[in-house]
Amino acid sequence: MTRVVPTGPPAAPPPTPRKEEWQALRILAVGAEGGGSGGLLHSIRQWMADSGAEIESAPDLPRAVRQLGAGRWQVVVAVLGDHADDDLVWWVDTLRGASAAPRLIAVAHRPSMGLVLRAEKLGVLDVLSLPVRRDDFLRALRRVRTAPEAAVTLPDVESHAIGQYVLVGQSPAMLEVYKLIARVGPSSATVLVQGESGTGKEVIARAIHLNGPMASGPFVAVNCAAIPENLLESELFGHEKGAFTGAITRKIGRFEQAGGGTLFLDEIADMSLALQAKILRAVQEREIERVGGSETIPVNVRLIAATNRDLKEAIKQARFREDLYYRLAVFQIRLPRLTERGDDLFLLTAYYARHFAKEYGKRIHSISDRALDLLRNHAWVGNVRELRNVIERAVIVATDEVLRVDHLPEEFRGEEATLQDRPEGALLALAEIEARHIARVLAHTNGQIGAAAEVLGIHRNTLTRKMKEYGL
Crossing angle, helix 410-421 and helix 369-377, to 10 degrees? Predict the structure, then answer.
């Protein structure tokens, strides 16, 4: 697998705690004094020096219980003993009855997978391994705020079913898209859908199909970027037996499979000029020839094409045929970025939270105000698809009925620190936010493009292009 070391902004380590951020924080460290804990208490005091946080220690459980009853602690750092699982459960039960219900950071000599899974289910802030690293400790601690996260109720969202997909949104930008679907749907016109990866181009294509004269016919989708160029022609037009090595039988292509229905060509700008010429002939003449064949085969399909690229710019660069562009662009629909859709982000968040809560057998009714702020300030390189992935993950790791900052991916918590450190009134260009987010995800995946593309919810070709654009 190709590995790329990003040269752009790396994922920043947690900044040194600021006094105004932690001056009201009270930390009780239990069993952290020297010995097997490796001087953890000394390290914590060193890491939090001049932060304004109050740090006290309890060498054993009896004194820890007395101190818990005597003060209001926000965080307890507990070093677990040889019976780590039992100790963990004891601490969770004990802290639930303590005033202020402090959050637990559990520290173990060799945390097992079972211990980590149990801690996650019990709502433990984090499980750290001895010796504890400064960055890990501060990341865990930064999940705690002196001000509680207020819960925002997730509304019931009206969605429009498009087969197995749905359309969600009420923003002016999406209302315009709905109007265009209503206008072009009843015709048999060729449609060009333009929009970034993850904006829902295939869902829009299916909506056009279902509102058109060929709705009873098949809907056949082809991602042109996902099929190698030497196989794409055969995939689209089919081939005759013996047309090339490995062609042991006749194959019916996607144009024929879509007969009487709609053929959706996604990422059409990724195909070669030679193949574009054959697509142009098929659109103009309504007929094709299989690879290795001489028979002309009439096809009756509605063609919908989609791309995340600027085709006019591609024409200037001689990478896309101008005549094909005008054949495809009989009717154009541009899909907005998620960041252009305003409160649709909240509606989509609510829809996906309830959808995945039902799928995973959970009860999710709210999202914290801080988590919602992070979602609203995120760059959303992968648009709706990335949001869907983020909310699914959040639902999976949620331990109660509220989605919180802790449930969002690590890069979001880095963004929260960035937002807090930014001078008041300072604004970042959208491109800079997007570049930082891509760099952060690449660092998180150790430069693995495929893994980063999956996190972002975009195709790896799109990610590669954006990396070149931003010099990453």
Answer: 90
**Does the reported pTM lie above 0.85?**
no
As a dihedral over the C-alpha atoms of residue 244, residue 245, residue 250, residue 256, rounded to 10 degrees, the angle is -50
How long a stretch of residues is the chain? 472
219-241 burial, b if ≥16 CB within 10 A, otherwise e?
Answer: bbbbebbebeeeebbbbbbbbbe
How far apart, in whole angstroms, are the C-alpha atoms of residue 259 and residue 99?
69
Three-state DSSP class for 127?
strand
pLDDT along the chain (472 residues), means of 10: 43 53 75 70 84 82 83 84 87 77 85 84 84 86 65 88 86 94 94 94 95 94 89 88 78 91 94 93 90 86 94 93 93 94 93 94 90 89 93 91 87 58 46 68 70 73 75 66
Domains in the chain, CATH or no CATH each = 25-141 (3.40.50.2300), 151-158+339-470 (1.10.8.60), 172-335 (3.40.50.300)
C-alpha dihedral, 256 to 258 to 261 to 267, nearest 10°: -130
Structure tokens at 309: 């690229």
How many other C-beta atoms lie within 10 A of the C-beta of residue 330? 14
Task: Please give, one letter per residue, the 3-state secondary structure of 145-189.
Answer: CCCCCCEEECCCCCCEEECCEEECCCCHHHHHHHHHHHHHCCCCC
Angle (nearest 5°) at CA 461 between 460 and 463: 60
Q: Which two tokens stand for residue 347?
A: 């509606």
Distance CA 24, CA 27 (A): 10
Helix axes 113-122, 84-96, angle to 10 degrees: 10
Treating both helix axes as pointing N-terminal to C-terminal, what angle do 430-444 and 460-470 enclose, rounded to 10 degrees?
120
**54: part of which helix (H) or strand (E)?**
strand 54-58
271-303 pLDDT tens trace: 999 999 999 999 999 998 888 878 889 999 999
What is the DSSP annotation of 277-297? Answer: HHHHHHHHHSEE--BT----E
Alpha-carbon separation of residue 349 from 67, 74, 360, 403 (angstroms): 41, 30, 16, 10
